[in-house]
Amino acid sequence: xxxxxxxxxxxxxxxxxxxxxxxxxxxxxxxxxxxxxxxxxxxxxxxxxxxxxxxxxxxxxxxxxxxxxxxxxxxxxxxxxxxxxxxxxxxxxxxxxxxxxxxxxxxxxxxxxxxxxxxxxxxxxxxxxxxxxxxxxxxxxxxxxxxxxxxxxxxxxxxxxxxxxxxxxxxxxxxxxxxxxxxxxxxxxxxxxxxxxxxxxxxxxxxxxxxxxxxxxxxxxxxxxxxxxxxxxxxxxxxxxxxxxxxxxxx
Length: 251
Hints:
By secondary structure, the chain is mostly helical. Helix content is 75%, strand content 0%. The chain is built from 10 helices and no strands. The protein has helices at residues 31-53, 60-87, 89-95, 100-129, 134-169, 172-183, 191-201, 204-214, 217-238, 243-250.
């Protein structure tokens, strides 16, 4: 699976009364791969409001750095949802007509989150233009809180309702098609940051097997040689140790 694989959502609704699945291929378990992507989004959006609120008012360089990160994050989620829209919902509707209400919910949630992301992008720019003003920071952080709540609901709905159906109606070849599409996308965030976050989402006891199964040999080698250090540097920059803590440790 590629680190930028774009994937699905969920919520149990009453059946529309339409016929059950038609023309479904053998069931796969490929939606398990998407759970890692969802964990990444939950983590990054969950920590984003605090990152903004922790910026000292007037610290324009820190605000500029975080603004670039946040713009990359909103773009990453847009790309993820667009791929789902392109590859999942029409096929799910065609092959599992009884799930029409679930598909409608997924589309509605995608549009709602998309609107929220557009608002966040605007507030990011307002924050940087203000020179990291405290009021602009809180305006942005509040919007990030809201999208975090929306995303938590959406991802839970998708994993509960859409994933089992997608495993039943999409073939291995179609999942491979989605993976190939994702690999053609240029990551809007540093590649080794995304890869490291995904690896963190895999239980440590399963990490080596996951790398061997999901990453091509050149990528595994690159991560072992220098990618993990790139990830650690990126995380330290994203979550710097407060200066007062450092000074306190020297006393």
